[in-house]
Specification:
The complex is a heterodimer of chains A (484) and B (100).
Chain A: H1 15-33, H2 40-58, E1 65-67, E2 72-74, H3 76-94, H4 96-102, H5 110-126, H6 130-148, H7 155-186, H8 191-200, H9 208-224, H10 233-240, H11 243-268, H12 273-295, H13 301-321, H14 325-352, H15 368-371, H16 373-387, H17 393-407, H18 411-437, H19 451-469, H20 472-481
Antiparallel strand pairs in A: 1-2
Helix pairs in contact in A: 1-2, 1-5, 2-3, 3-5, 3-11, 3-14, 3-20, 5-6, 5-11, 6-7, 6-11, 7-9, 7-10, 8-11, 9-11, 10-11, 10-13, 11-13, 11-14, 12-13, 12-18, 13-14, 13-17, 13-18, 14-16, 14-17, 14-19, 14-20, 16-18, 16-19, 17-18, 17-19
Chain B: H1 4-24, H2 28-53, H3 57-87
Helix pairs in contact in B: 1-2, 2-3
Classes of the chains: A mainly alpha (484), B mainly alpha (100).
Subcellular location (chain A): Cell membrane; Endomembrane system; Membrane
Transmembrane segments (chain A): 12-34, 41-62, 77-96, 131-150, 162-185, 205-223, 255-273, 279-297, 304-325, 331-353, 374-397, 409-429, 449-470
EC number (chain A): 7.1.1.-
């Protein structure tokens, strides 16, 4: 009988995750025991919880600490990503209440569900064992299936949830099979052990078990970050899901997918960077081009932003394909700025659409610029940032990603990226043309912003501009985060 | 004791059957059952490797996969019921409001 050695337990390393799970569970109980239909207070409590968690996470900044026998790590890379997740969850919560009341689905469980999804993302970023990454991914995915189908009386939301569930579970199968084969080829599920095994036995790179395993893992993660050709679910799910949840899904979970992808690909297989690079640039070119070209012909603003989010995953993959520190830091910075600009854009869309998401088309925005000049200006800032125009965060992010690609010798990849960026201007500007230069066919009354949405917009606009004008500090932090 | 290749081949065949089922079947519940089959094929792979390597990690992984599959089943069936209530069908051909 083998004796099992008790691993050293260091709870401090996973303190942010513990805190956030406890807060989410308490909020579930609060929701049950406090009567009344107004659930907005749960949102505010969640935001306090997220702030406490962020403080606890940022407190760990510094040298990396590994715990639980090398299953979890607390390093700057994970902390930077955790802050991105917490920010996107906070912004999504701020824009939820009004929408959920309007659509008659403001059940209080929404907020704990978002928090649990955030715990899953945090585990994905800090996990250094395939098992932990898998558990984090599933905690995230299962919560997202529920959130996508949250509006259960609305057929579109039902469809989004069902589609996301079936395709998500399908892709999980591939990811798991990849993990099983990698485990078989290298004898461990720990990234550290896999890495040293690959270093010690270079011959493993030609072992079919190992190669197929790695490819299947790459397929599983590509699905999660919505990279072409595994993007088919994205537009449908993003369009059908409740708008605040679409905003959340496009920012947080995408970043989480990148965090786990980078962790597995770069850390576990430093020897195979050249091979990854070849795979990743194909993914990057496909993803950017497919996303942008299909976005050109979309009328529904949510669906257009869904395709644009595919394109943005492509830009981030350009930095990933460079497989150097600049590229990785660029992804970190880009994911942070993308969270602000994209959730901000969705916040304005929540204000524009009425119950049942009527008037969600570009044409319905005609005259918006004259009726609500301030909101229209805010939306324009987000769209400019998404298109990558200076002086916004989107410009700095893309500049950094593309220059990383050039440094790695992928000049033409950067050129394709810039061309794509130029094409994307068309559909972002089209929204602005309708807002400012067309007259409305019917007279729409647009509602004003609630305080919570106003705060979200203020934070998002502020961050988009600040990151665009003085990106120095955050870029430095991102660079420190990728010094492995 | 059988050689590990036998187990790997069986699980690869199971995985392939599951994948083909997901791609060809039209009933959401049958698709879900095919996905479960893929997960169980993975479990078989893990256990075979665990035995072969004399390493317990693979068996621990299987417990997690089973737990997660159960949680996924709960959520997935709930989503199907919600869809059925509004559409009175769980045929994926009827999941067509949002166009690809």
């Amino acid at each position: 009988m083998e004796t099992i050695a008790m691993p050293a337990i260091n709870l401090a390393v996973i303190m942010p995750e513990i805190l956030l799970s406890c807060i989410a569970m308490v909020l579930l109980l609060v929701n049950v025991f406090v009567p009344g239909n107004n659930k907005a207070y749960l949102g505010y409590l969640s935001i306090i919880g997220l702030a406490v968690t962020a403080a606890s996470a940022v407190g760990g900044w510094g040298p990396s600490v590994s715990a639980f026998n090398g299953s979890v790590v607390q390093d700057n890379f994970a902390i930077f990503f955790k802050v991105i997740f917490l920010i996107s969850a906070g912004l999504a919560i701020l824009i939820s209440d009004r929408y959920m009341v309007q659509e008659d689905c403001n059940q209080g469980e929404l907020y704990p569900m978002i928090l649990f999804a955030t715990v899953g993302m945090m585990l994905m970023a800090s996990g250094t064992d395939l098992m932990v990454i898998f558990l984090g991914l599933e905690l995230l995915s299962i919560c997202l299936y529920v959130l996508a189908g949250w509006n259960r009386d609305n057929l579109k939301s039902n469809e989004a949830g069902l589609k996301y569930f079936l395709l998500g579970a399908f892709s999980t199968g591939f990811l798991l099979y990849g993990m099983a084969l990698t485990y078989g080829a290298t004898g461990s599920t720990k990234i550290q052990a896999i890495s040293s095994y690959v270093m010690g036995n270079p011959g493993v790179a030609s072992n079919p078990l190992f190669v197929v395993g790695m490819l299947l893992i790459a397929v599983g993660f590509s699905f999660k970050i919505a990279a072409a050709p595994f993007h088919m679910w994205t537009p449908d799910v993003y369009q059908g899901a409740p708008t605040p949840m679409t905003a959340f899904m496009s920012a947080g979970p995408k970043a989480a997918g990148f965090a786990a992808f980078i962790r597995v690909m770069i850390f576990a297989f430093p020897m195979l960077r050249a091979e990854w690079s070849d795979l990743l640039w194909i993914l990057a070119v496909l993803t950017m081009t497919v996303g942008n070209i299909i976005a050109l012909s979309q009328d529904n603003v949510k669906r257009m932003l869904a395709y644009s989010s595919i394109a943005h995953a492509g830009y981030a993959l350009v930095g990933f394909a460079a497989v150097n520190a600049e590229g990785a830091a660029g992804i970190l910075f880009y994911m942070l700025s993308y969270a602000f600009m994209n959730i901000g854009a969705f916040a304005v869309i929540i204000l524009i659409t009425k119950k049942g998401e009527v008037n969600g088309n570009v044409q319905d925005l005609a005259g918006f610029g004259h009726k609500k000049p301030l909101l229209a200006m805010v939306l324009s800032i987000f769209l400019f940032s998404l298109a990558g125009m200076p002086p916004t965060a989107g410009f700095i992010g893309k500049f950094y990603l593309f220059s990383a690609a050039i440094k790695a010798g992928y000049v033409w990849l950067a050129i394709i990226g810039v061309l794509n960026s130029a094409a994307s201007l068309y559909y972002y500007l089209r929204v602005m043309v309708f807002m400012y230069m067309k007259d409305p066919e019917e007279d729409f009354e647009w509602a004003g912003a609630t305080p919570a949405i106003a705060v979200c917009l203020l934070v998002a606009v502020g961050a988009t501009l600040v990151l665009g004008v003085v990106p120095g500090t955050v870029l430095e932090l991102a660079q420190k985060a990728v010094q492995f | 004791m059988l050689a590990i290749e036998n187990y790997l081949i069986v699980s690869a065949i199971l995985f392939a059957i599951g994948t083909i089922g997901v791609l060809t079947k039209r009933n959401a519940i049958v698709i879900f059952m095919c996905i479960e089959m893929m997960l169980n094929a993975v479990n078989l792979t893990f256990i075979a490797f665990s035995r072969h390597l004399g390493n317990i990690d693979g068996q621990v992984f299987v417990f997690f996969v089973m737990t997660v599959a159960a949680a996924e089943a709960a959520v997935g069936l709930a989503l199907m019921i919600a869809f059925f209530k509004n559409r009175e069908s769980i045929d994926v051909e009827d999941v067509n409001l949002l166009k690809l």
